[in-house]
Each structure stands twice: as structure tokens, then as C-alpha cells.
Design brief:
single chain; 242 residues; mainly alpha; Arc Repressor Mutant, subunit A; Four Helix Bundle (Hemerythrin (Met), subunit A); two-stranded antiparallel sheet; 11 helices
Length: 242
């Protein structure tokens, strides 16, 4: 049963919010279950309806509940990525772009190291599938490369790296990826745009220039982290001319 605590302090709204959140997180109210009406909650907590409503609004904003007009408030299946998608514009400021290379070298390369030892054969097969699809796109891509095609390449690139993050089997790293995904996408797009221009000037095809995804995959399969790291560092660094 939910553990209801009478509110005695002045910060009634905060206490109601915290107690409701604790009961939801603990599973006393499960996903899909309807919470008691505001009037009943107000009576249980010993506060007025406005205090309960404010607490429910905070839970709505967090993504733990949803209020259906004329029906009531229901517990939601919380998805961290949904929460991040709602606020991730905060992580897309231009000033953060200069830090993303350091972030990727620190966290993403470590994910690759963990994935070498933790990933299942099925996960490696999925990484291979993603890599093959990206290669097919690069083979079809010729100079000059327009922005729409660059965005498509960016999506494939991000899918490849996201799979490696998942293969690390570290939940916190996966959360980090969700938090930084939009910034990562912009960084990859700008890096590809710069490199594609350079390849065109040198007469290098997109496939010839952007070969490191397959090389990283094969290094991981051989459990050769040293080579994987060199390839990853070059791929990540915006300033490296490939």
C-alpha cells in the first residue's frame, strides 16, 4: 500500500511532491494505475487541493504521471530518453560544441573498450548491419554532397556510435548518450561537412575518406583496443584532416 505521510511543515507542496514521487518510484502506484482524486489526496496529506495540484504538475513535468482532463491522473512508464528529449535544447548551445570532442574521447572510447569485452555476438551482428547500411549509403553518395545527404549520413553515423554505447552495457553511459545526442548529431554533421569538402578537393570519394567505421568494428572483434582507440580518436577529432 502507498505510504502516506501527514504534512506538518510549511513546505507542504514539496513534501507532497516528494512523497508521491517516492511511492511511484517504489512501485506502490504502478504504470497505468490511476492515482486517487485530488480531493482524496488532499485529505490523506492534510493539505488543500491547490497544494496537491501543484505537486501533480511537477510530476507531470518530470514525466512520471499524466493528467487526463475529465478523467484523472495516471502513472506513466517513465522513459529517461523522453525526459531528455523534452529538455535537450539546453545541451545544444553553441558554446558546448567546443567541448564535445573531449567528451567523446573520454566517454565514447571507454564505451568501445567495454563493448569489446561485454557485447554479445548478436550485438556485434547488429553493429555490422548498421555499418553495412552506412557503407551502402556512402557508396551511393557522390560530390557535391548537399545538406540533406549530409544529414542522412549523420543519422547513420550516430546509429553506429549509439550501438557501441549500448554494447558497453553501462546504463549511465547510455543516459549520457541520450543527454548529449542532439549535440553529438550537430558535431558529427559539422565534422562530416568539413571533411566531405576536403575529400572533394582531393578527388577522394566519400567511401574512401570515411572508412573508419568498418575498421573500428573489425578492431573491436579482434579485441584490439589499442587500434580501436587510434581509429576512434581520429574519427572523433574535428581538427583531424582525414
Amino acid at each position: 500500500m502507498p505510504q502516506i505521510k501527514k504534512v506538518e511543515k510549511v513546505t507542504a507542496g514539496e513534501q507532497v511532491y516528494e512523497n508521491l514521487r517516492e511511492n511511484i518510484v517504489a512501485g506502490h502506484w504502478k504504470a497505468g494505475e490511476k492515482l486517487p482524486p485530488e480531493t482524496e489526496l488532499a485529505s490523506l496529506y492534510g493539505v488543500n487541493r491547490l497544494t496537491v495540484r501543484m505537486a501533480l504538475q511537477r510530476l507531470n513535468a518530470l514525466g512520471l504521471v499524466e493528467t487526463r482532463v475529465g478523467d484523472g491522473t495516471y502513472v506513466k512508464e517513465f522513459e529517461f530518453s523522453d525526459f531528455i528529449n523534452a529538455v535537450q535544447d539546453l545541451y545544444s548551445e553553441p558554446r558546448l560544441m567546443e567541448n564535445i570532442c573531449e567528451f567523446r574521447k573520454l566517454i565514447e572510447v571507454e564505451c568501445a573498450r567495454l563493448a569489446i569485452h561485454r557485447a554479445t555476438p548478436e550485438e556485434f551482428e547488429e553493429l555490422d548491419r548498421i555499418c553495412t547500411a552506412y557503407e551502402a549509403l556512402k557508396i551511393r553518395t557522390t560530390h557535391p554532397v548537399d545538406e540533406e545527404k549530409l544529414r542522412e549520413m549523420t543519422r547513420h553515423d550516430i546509429a553506429f556510435h549509439e550501438q557501441i554505447w549500448l554494447m558497453s552495457h553501462n546504463t549511465l553511459y547510455s543516459y549520457c548518450f541520450a543527454m548529449a545526442k542532439r549535440t553529438l548529431e550537430e558535431y558529427v554533421f559539422l565534422t562530416l561537412k568539413r571533411r566531405v569538402t576536403g575529400w572533394a578537393e582531393k578527388g577522394v570519394t566519400v567511401m574512401e575518406g570515411d572508412f573508419r567505421h568498418r575498421a573500428i568494428l573489425e578492431a573491436m572483434r579482434r579485441q584490439d583496443f589499442a587500434e580501436c582507440k587510434v581509429l576512434y580518436d581520429d574519427m572523433i577529432d574535428f581538427n583531424v584532416e582525414l
